[in-house]
Amino acid sequence: MQTLTETKTQLPTLTYTRNPGMALDLDWVASVQANTSAIERRAASLGGRRSVKKDFQAAWLLKAISLIDLTTLSGDDTEGRVKRLCAKARQPVAPWMLDRLGLQGLTTGAVCVYHDMVGTAVRALEGSNIPVAAVSTGFPAGLSPYRLRIAEIGESVRAGAKEIDIVISRRHVLTGNWQALYDEMREMRAECGDAHVKAILATGELATLRNVARASLVCMMAGADFIKTSTGKENVNATLPVTLTMIRCIRDYQDRTGIKVGYKPAGGIAKAKDALLYLALMKDELGHPWLQPDLFRFGASSLLGDIERQLEHHLTGQYSAANRHAMG
Ligand SMILES: O=C[C@H](O)COP(=O)(O)O
Fold first, then answer.
1. Is 26-318 in CATH node 3.40.50.2300?
2. Which atom of ligand 1 is nearest to the CA of 303?
3. In the chain, which residue ranges form alpha helices assigned H by DSSP?
């Protein structure tokens, strides 16, 4: 894998990339394979490599911040917590750090909340360009009545969510009912209207990497603007093998249709060095366009805290031996 080199972070402007989708191509779905042992070998080889040279780390950490969907998805969420989260999204690191780096106006990519908190988040982010993403459709299991799942999307859009993270019905994947998965995704896409739609596959519950690949493809055919690994609530969430599988499907879909679909690893990404590894992998496999917020996001509740700590150590020169090790 190449080492990331970039000395300056340019603040991204978010222009959404839309996926119009296509007719369900069952032959293509049937032909999808995933060579699990090769994928696992490649994933295992990634962790030990330095993904960013020390001189370039600050720029890449800032880039990572701009790609976070800063998330709170807890049963005990309150308006106060969501307001604090939004304040953090507006000003993710201390102003002195940005001054030191000659950068102003850095924000996270979005704020991600349950439907009930969309209104609070929209009000708290007024005047900023930070979109609110709502998890919808009976998150996280997606097992509430179908008409209610569809209705929830409309409610979130009307409350001001610009991005909707839907959960798919895992049973359609586990039973190979690709038509049902396609129809469900298509209807959810339509209900989102102008809002950007991310399809959460809950890959930890799909049994095989081949299922992950086929579900990725069907959701893209049905018009998902992003494919997202996990709700963060499964036993296994974002992993490197799943990431390789999904981003190669994104590449195949682009090769065949010319359409770029985004990728959102989510759940359990809490360390700055893991974030940098993901960015290096995206650059390697898909190229620069997938280092922008219209095509890449981290779904993460605690990643920002670790990035901030690493940035502070970087800028003050106070790298402890432990931190040097943590940053690889
Ligand atoms: O979609 C985002 C995930 O729920 C966040 O998961 P996390 O709390 O493990 O970072």
1. no
2. 10
3. 26-31, 36-46, 57-66, 79-90, 95-101, 118-124, 146-158, 170-174, 178-192, 209-221, 240-257, 272-285, 303-316, 321-326
